[in-house]
Design brief:
little secondary structure; 1 helix; about 0% strand; flat
Length: about 60
């Protein structure tokens, strides 16, 4: 006889604590493009942070051409 189990990923919280979103002016702005790759649980980069790459990383040098 096989038994089917349902697995839930959950967190217990105190009923007295209300979860409120941050004020409208303070919400983070994320930078997501067609090239954005994320791992499990990873958030996209913030728009005001510098990207992990520069233009020099995607340009071909004269030697490479």
């Amino acid at each position: 006889m096989s038994q089917e189990l349902d697995v839930f990923d959950a967190e217990l919280v105190d009923d007295g604590i209300a979860v409120r979103p941050p004020p409208a002016g303070r919400r983070p702005r994320y930078l997501v493009t067609q090239h954005t790759m994320l791992g499990p649980g990873e958030l996209p980069p913030l728009a005001d942070q510098r990207p992990g790459w520069t233009d020099a990383d995607i340009r071909l040098s004269a030697e490479d051409r």
